[in-house]
Specification:
mainly alpha, single chain
Length: 149
């Protein structure tokens, strides 16, 4: 009868449905020498749990950590930031002078030629866009022929 009770408790144990008292009963049963032969396989597992419960951690944990010297790192980061800002302003200063021109011309003929170049470039890009729309329109016509509404 006790063997059937232990088998039921083992099933409950593996389904995680046992109480603490039932687990103590299982541990005490498997710590005795007269365990049923078909339940011998569980004796090592419950014996392991009993043994590990008795173990204590005796190793010392060092509480002091290495103190890193971060001061040099902040100095190096400051220097890098200052050099980066310096080169940015040095490069930006020369490009700022060229940007202030805004494409103004003293000679009207030269200004007219440059305007024609810009408008020709704009026209060619617009024409490419219009050609793409033509393909879409051709696709719509073909689609309407295939899938008649």
């Amino acid at each position: 009868m006790e063997s059937n009770n232990i088998e039921i408790l083992i099933e409950k144990y593996f389904q995680a449905e046992t109480s603490i008292a039932e687990e103590k009963e299982l541990r005490s049963y498997f710590s005795t020498p007269n365990v049923a032969p078909h339940l011998e396989q569980y004796k090592a597992m419950f014996g392991f749990f009993t043994e590990t419960k008795k173990q204590e951690f005796t190793q010392e944990i060092p509480l002091k950590t290495k103190k890193r010297n971060v001061r040099w790192l902040t100095v190096a980061a400051s220097i890098v930031i200052l050099l980066g800002m310096g080169t940015f302003f040095l490069i930006n200063d020369t490009t700022l002078e060229t940007k202030n021109e805004l494409g103004s011309y003293d000679n009207p003929e030269e200004a007219f030629k440059e305007t024609q170049k810009a408008l020709a470039l704009l026209s060619s890009n617009v024409n490419v866009g219009i050609e793409s729309v033509m393909y879409v329109q051709e696709y719509e016509i073909t689609k309407n022929r295939v899938f008649k509404k």
